[in-house]
Amino acid sequence: MKVAIIYNRLFDYDGKEQLIGGVETYLLHLGALCSKMGWNPVIFQFANKPFKRTINSLEIVGVPVAGFNRSHLLAPLTFKSKKVELFMNAKRELDCKKDIIIFGADWFSLKNDNRRCIAIQHGISWDLPTRYMTRKKLFESGWGARLGKWFFVRSAIRDFENCQNRVCVDYNFLNWYRTTRSVETNGKIWVIPNFASAIGSPEQITARRRTNDNVRILFARRFTSYRGIHIMAETAKEILQRYDTISFTFAGEGPEEIWLKEQFAKEKRVSFTRYLPHEVLDIHLAHDIAVVPSIASEGTSLSVAEAMGAGCVVVATAVGGITNMIINGYNGILVMPDVSSLIAGLELVLKDFDLRIQIMKRAYETAKEAFGLEVWEERWRKVLLEVAGY
Question: Which domain holds residue 41?
């Protein structure tokens, strides 16, 4: 049986460079699970010219669509027509009575009545003032901003209702969706939280350094405003002034990288690094506290799950699906997405060593029981078998 996963792109449009991101990582693991089940997963994506690539038995097929180029993606109507064309190309390779179709994200889905079709909802991404989400000045303030927000909300509801079968990565979106609908929800909905791709062994957690000397704080995200890089930088400056035994590591890359390095050019207790996906456990094991200060656009955060799985104390903002992962003061610290709240959250665990150790243990237990890859795979396996009619 084939499983067709339809998404914008896992490789660039020429099929040369593999892209790395949350959704891309998610779909690669989903394809790997389908292979484990003895099925044949194929990812169909946009392309400038036909190509085929293979990653760990997962085939990626680039489908050229008429007149496709980047500029077309800026026009919603054109984008929709291209999605239809990609979808129809994929359908030609399938037996719709036997095979399964998965839209890699609900915003990339199309309305259909196929009972063997699933769309994945990756969390709320429009939880910001409209001026942050569009370049059109019409929507920056006043009634225009309200109109812009209404457009995003309307699109989110429409996209979610395109398929009868839907998988959500958190309850945050689902609770929001229920408040907007005046009628019963049709179809089937499953909530499968995201996973940590690697979780430390009990021996690795036991061997963790437990001391108040040189507490090491990690920011392992893309260097973007959405991920809270600006409030993180201001917080780090203040914490470094208040404590002599603290060091910070910024691990990642992104559009704010040059700016960020300029902020700490003369600070010896701040270091910068990058890491590959297979190194995620090692870098978290080398730190005591992980900060996830996103200001918007979070599902059940891979970064939170990875940090908890390595026994880090997580200080995170109460944004999106993160609130489905952390119970404040029990297995992590939740704060508001601003500098003063982030400082207060960090100081809480910096000043209370016993609390830090307790949270570390509970965070690891939570990740192991709720966010392990095996747990995620088993939940998805049940969904796939149900949709397939087994």
Answer: 2-194+373-388
